[in-house]
Automatic annotation (TrEMBL):
Gene3D superfamilies (UniProt xref): Glycosidases
Protein species of origin: Mucilaginibacter agri
Asl1-like glycosyl hydrolase catalytic domain boundaries: 269-386
Xref: InterPro entries: Asl1_glyco_hydro_catalytic (IPR024655), GH (IPR017853)
Name under which the protein is recorded: Asl1-like glycosyl hydrolase catalytic domain-containing protein
Pfam short name (any one): Glyco_hydro_cc
Length: 422
């Protein structure tokens, strides 16, 4: 074995003798559980047919990597058992076919099902995204319960998309004030994502600088009492990129980039002309490193590099020609500014172990961020599932909290227990 999922790391392992790989018995292996547990079997990926004793087990998306180039990996299956004796059959018990290596077994006591992390006494600020100003699930729950959930997980930042009018005032100020008061009382700061509503790709750089400056100055003049930090725009790197990984200048439409850069420079300058102590950040995602450096070279004087990173990026980045195994380390090597991850989340897929995948990715990424002193903040995406967006299953299922019945009853997903401050 060369790698196991984080959720299985450190668990008891039963490694059966490979000489028994052809065993056809229905009762090959027995062991005793002292508590209710989940049992995981890693079965040869070359199998074309499973033994009967594995029927009824849940096939997981996670695998155990090996250095056997012919087999590749063990495919994982899981099943819950009460305390007592567990008996498993042989690798080649009827009607198995294709397996050429004996299986392995992990056990995990159910009460310890989640790999706990405790985000306390760390320089890393911890938080989450929410849509408290208009999304139905958040309106159903109310801000007091949202704040309670954030405090339960040791979170001190709540990122919100906020619409600002031309004069800088909030479109939903009456709804915002109770949210602000509740979060402030709990020691939680709101990070606003400021929409670039007046950015115009058909106008010149100078016109867009002026529009951005006007927007930034107006927003700060009306809201400096609420915010210290501002995130300027949302993934505008994706508007400029045309090809490649995004690590080269030639990957971008330069004329479009210059319009974006001019607008962001104006917005940053505008905010600081009114609120000199404000801290601004601009975000990018995936491996779009050149975009961020191009903004710096253009003269945009933002303070923090913000990054958006999702589970599929974490999975494929090491296989990319750039071989990025730790995005926190990569960003630290490229930029001298502080680094904030303002969106980190699990992409939904319709598989049985999606909650465990979410738990594994988030807890693993938290540890990476916490281990890197250059990372100033980690904000997960997002607090609640949004079933009203069911036409887009990705958008509907990012939450750490799921709904049992049409937004009338909610249940924390597995990762919430891992994040809960004990």
């Amino acid at each position: 074995m060369t790698a196991v999922p984080d959720s299985l790391s450190g668990l008891p392992l039963i490694k059966t003798a490979n000489d028994d790989k052809a065993n056809t018995s229905a009762s090959f292996l027995s062991f005793t559980l002292t508590n209710k547990s989940t049992v995981y079997v890693g079965y040869d990926a070359r199998s074309t047919k499973l033994p009967t004793w594995l029927s009824g087990w849940t096939k997981l998306a996670a695998t155990v990597a090996t250095d056997d180039v012919k087999m590749g990996s063990f495919v994982l299956y899981s099943k819950s058992y009460n305390a007592g004796t567990v008996t498993l059959g042989g690798t080649m018990a009827s009607p198995a076919a294709g397996a050429l290596c004996n299986y392995i077994v992990f056990t995990r006591t159910t009460s310890n099902a989640s790999a706990e992390i405790q985000p306390v006494n760390s320089n890393l600020a911890f938080g989450i995204n929410g849509h408290s100003l208009g999304s139905d699930p958040y309106l159903e729950v109310g801000i007091d319960q949202q704040v309670a959930l954030l405090k339960q997980m040791g979170m001190t930042y709540y990122r919100q998309d906020i619409n600002f009018k031309t004069d800088g005032s909030m479109s939903s100020l009456n709804s915002f004030i109770p949210i602000y008061n509740a979060t402030k009382a709990a020691g939680i700061s709101i990070l606003p994502m400021v929409y670039t509503t007046t950015l115009d790709y058909n106008q010149s750089e100078s016109a867009n600088y002026a529009a951005g400056h006007l927007k930034g100055a107006a927003v700060a003049s009306k809201n400096s009492q609420y915010f210290k930090y501002y995130e300027l725009g949302n993934e505008l790197d994706n508007k400029a990129i045309v090809s490649g990984n995004g690590d080269k200048t030639t990957d971008y439409n330069l004329s479009k980039f210059k319009v974006i850069a001019a607008y962001l420079k104006g917005m940053d300058d505008g905010i600081k002309s009114v609120q000199p102590t404000a801290q601004t950040m601009i975000d990018a995602s995936w491996l779009h490193f050149a975009y961020m450096q191009m903004l710096i070279d253009y003269g945009v004087k933002f303070d923090i590099v913000a990054w958006h990173w999702y589970s599929e990026m974490e999975k494929v980045a090491p296989k990319n020609p750039l071989k990025v195994t730790d995005i926190t380390v990569k960003l630290s090597s490229l930029f001298s500014k502080p680094i904030w991850f303002t969106e980190v989340g699990q992409r939904y897929s319709n598989v049985a172990d999606i909650e465990q995948q979410q738990n594994d990715f988030i807890t693993s990424f938290y540890k990476k961020a916490k281990a890197n002193p250059r990372v100033g903040a980690l904000l997960l995406y997002e607090l609640f599932d949004e079933p009203q967006k069911s036409a887009n299953q990705l958008e509907a299922n990012y939450g750490l909290i799921k709904w049992n019945s049409n937004m009338t009853k909610w249940t924390p997903k597995t990762v919430v227990n891992s994040l809960t401050v004990k």
